Amino acid sequence: MTRPLNAFIFDLDGVITDTAEYHFLAWKALAEDLGITFTREDNEELKGVSRMDSLEKILELGGRTGDFTAEEKDALADKKNDHYLSLIQNITPADLLPAIKELIADIKAKGLKLGLASASKNAFTVMESLGMKSEFDIIVDAKTVVNGKPHPEVFLHAAEMLGVEPEACIGVEDAAAGVQAIKSAGMFAVAVGPKESFENADIVYASTSELSLEKILEVYNA
pLDDT of 67-118, one tens digit each? Predict the structure, then answer.
């Protein structure tokens, strides 16, 4: 028997496009300003994590957790974001990750709803630059939720805005925290990345180029 399915809810960074490099460069510049060494390996720990939690992780890395007031931390996070925004000015539709445009077209052709659930506060800006904002029914970003991933709030809020039950949604993520959020929301989880990173996912693809609506639906309805 076919399971009810009403919507797909996508993460942004690492799924629709890869702004991870821009985030890394902006965080690295801020860390260096603070005298903290920040590597690509360290950056992996920030995937799917909110801006303020990311800052806390970097301060902890440098042993500087207690050196700043809440206001100073806000200013540091804003400084990072300003740098990041200047870096993403160059994003175009050519920056869509492989097979994403086709997958979204296939989902829309089936009459399914499309939502975006992003930990980024710049999701609207990035989606506009990619030429994808109008393709999605709703966009939920970090500005509209209290709890970041792995808390399920962003996915539950997306389902609510779409007017669908979480159990009838498929979530697509590239971060372990994001997959945990999808599963905690009661949704079917599609992960993109190394299989060993996603024990909780229902299906894992090594890269977006392997994503196929037909294959996802086969597993979903199995």
Answer: 999 999 999 999 999 999 998 888 999 999 999 999 999 999 999 999 999 9
Task: Tell me if 122 is assigned to a ligand binding site.
Answer: yes
Q: Is 120 annotated as a binding-site member? A: yes
Q: Are 205 and 189 in contact (CB under 8 A)?
A: no
Contact residues for 110 (Cβ-Cβ < 8 A; gap 6+): 213
Q: Which of 13, 106, 141, 202 is catalytic?
A: 13
Active site residue 13: yes
Give all strands of the β-sheet with 169-173 in edge-to-edge order: 138-140, 113-117, 7-10, 169-173, 188-192, 203-205
101 assigned binding-site residue: no
Does the annotation mark 82 as catalytic? no
Structure tokens at 69: 């007031």
Cβ neighbours for 102, distance < 8 A, ≥ 6 positions apart: none
| Domains defined for the chain, CATH in brackets | 7-17+95-221 (3.40.50.1000), 19-89 (1.10.150.240)
